[in-house]
Amino acid sequence: MITIDFNQLDIHPDDRILDIGCGEGRHTIRACRQNKTMCVGADFGFKNLIETKKKLAFHQALNDLCCKSIDLSCMDVTNLPFKNSSFDIVICSEVLEHIPDDKRALSELVRILKPGKILAVSVPRFWPEKICWLLSDEYFNANMGHVRIYKKNSLIMAIESLGLTGFSSHYAHSIHTPFWWLKCFVGPDRTDSKLVNLYHRLLVWDLMKKPKSTAFIDRLLNPILGKSLVLYFKKQ
Q: Dihedral of the CA atoms 83, 110, 1, 154 (nearest 10)?
């Protein structure tokens, strides 16, 4: 499930791309499909990196990656082991809402970004996320769960105060929003809800088959129901 619009990133050959909080590698793999890029996938969770490595190996076997290099590493977003101005593109998708010291994390992301280059950030959108919190205490009290809800203008101001300029934004994954509401309503940890499992099968089918019908519905509803807020900034 790709949240970041790569057309907004102005990627060139030899660009260094960091996907911080890469999870199981969806954006890392997408970055590795950019011609002659040097990609780093990083995450706090070692198990996530193992899954990313497996998926990268699968795509390498299909010969559909065209990057110069791929590196995976376990690290903390609040203390990144890179020199200043190390990357041309930094992607931080669905990460900040998990980080208690998000100001330190943002400062680190800006520090390692080259001047004139792009930071892409996505977080859960305020009102769909707020409903999830209201429906279930378990949703945000879980280990490594969400610790805050962002408002768009406040997040933009926080990032721009660090010397970046926002130039684009959009919402994503509208068809996922009702799934999370339903999941929170029945209980986030339940696995026996037929309705939740049926909806999950629909989302997996959509992810694998990518039919035009659901893509159209998703784009149509994103301004209203989009679960993720996606922001793009350029370093001054």
A: 160
